[in-house]
Amino acid sequence: MSLEDLLIARVSETGPMTVADYMVECLLHPRHGYYTTRDPLGIAGDFTTAPEISQMFGELIGLTLAQAWIDQGAPRFTLAELGPGRGTLMADILRATRAVPGFHDAATITLVEASPVLRDRQAETLADFAPTWLDSAADLPDAPLFVVANEFFDALPIRQFLRDGGTWRERQVGVTDGALAFGLGGPTDQPTLAPWSDTPDGTLIELRPAAAAVMAEIAPRIDTHGGAALVVDYGTWGEPGDTFQAVRGHEKVAPLDTPGSADLTAHVDFRALAQSAPGLAASALTPQGVFLERLGITARAQALASKLSGDPLAQHIVAHRRLTHPEEMGDLFKVLGLTAPGAPMLPGLSQT
Ligand code: SAH
Questions:
Q1: Among 35, 41, 53, 154, which is best to mutate for testing ligand 1, by the most ligand atoms less than 8 A from CB?
Q2: Is residue 169 part of a domain?
Q3: Is the CB of 154 under 6 A from ligand 1?
Q4: How far is the CA of 178 from the centre of ligand 1 (A)?
């Protein structure tokens, strides 16, 4: 039975499901889930990410984390990544920080990853570093924590609420004429939506309870023991709107068309993330291109370019542009830093 048939059967039995339930089934179903059954990254896959585009991304993130660690007294610490994909970002962080005295010895490498296929891939990439895998951020140790997440939060499930006649109605996935279709639930009174109660009819708000839950695990550890979080993703500072999307073979497809075989995501609400970490100091939300330029990506690109020629040089130039140019990833992707109270902000970001 296909996942689509399973979901249609489920709706027939128990009624329409939330968009969040639909996302979780499509992404993480044990037998049919998008992440559970494949490695979706790379040119031949469905989408590619900054660490897969160029080693410079992870190198600069490694250096900013190392500086923050030095600024906080170089403690023994957990170096964690949420949703590490192929392990490329962590490998680049570790290569770039090899020369930072004591950093590797002080770090316990910890990966929070739901996909068995990607865990295997990470084990290959990071074989020299003996990482530990966790199912959930809740299992992180109580210790200083430096954590990075690139394109992780966008994959966590969202619920969608439409302002309608002075009330809220939740967008649902049901069945119409034998096929999955969007619909709306009855009026609902969500306390978390109170701040938006004077928004006009037709406004759609996305809530991501799973992101708040992850932050509720990370923030108290950083608050109590020290550390920092660096979150990179596409999104905004709390702008409303429908951002639910599906991508397959580097093309946008309809989110209900191919359950389990397209990547489902929605933009990250960075304001909500920062609000879920009330004890920590938040950076200004910074475009990825600005962040990487402040950390010296152009100098690094030139140093690498001096050793390249022909096709590899042309690819390197394209990669630099993709990461930084406002018309490519430079503006769409944003960086949020969160640090222990009183600690200096991560280099490349400014304190608000
Ligand atoms: N950070 C990587 C991969 C991004 S894709 C990169 O930049 O290349 C999203 C990653 O998050 C994948 O590794 C996916 O398996 C993981 N993931 C998605 N939902 C998750 C969840 N609920 N818990 C843990 N990992 C999850």
A1: 35
A2: yes
A3: no
A4: 32
Within this chain, do residues 163 and 141 fall inside the same structural domain, yes or no? no
| Closest ligand 1 atom to 83 CA | 11
Instruction: Assess contact for 336 and 152: CB atoms under 8 A.
Output: no
Helix or strand holding residue 229 (H, E):
strand 227-236
Contact 129, 98 (CB under 8 A): no
Answer whether residue 344 is part of any domain.
no
Residue 85 belongs to domain spanning: 34-156+208-339
Q: Where are the alpha helices (DSSP H) in 48-129?
A: 50-53, 55-71, 88-96, 103-106, 116-125
Question: Can you read off the two tokens belonging to residue 118?
Answer: 């990607």
User: CA 56, CA 92: separation in Å to the nearest integer?
Assistant: 8
Tell me: the pLDDT tens digits for 260-299?
999 999 999 999 999 999 999 999 999 999 999 999 999 9
Pocket test of ligand 1: the residue of 57, 115, 135 to mutate, having most ligand atoms within 8 Å of its CB, is 115
- Contact present, 231 and 335 (Cβ < 8 Å): yes
Choose which residue among 113, 158, 231 to substitute to test ligand 1 binding: the one with the highest number of ligand atoms within 8 A of its C-beta: 113
Residue 302's CB is within 10 A of a number of other CB atoms, namely 11
- pTM of the entire predicted model: 0.97
Determine if ligand 1 sits within 6 Å of the CB of residue 83. yes
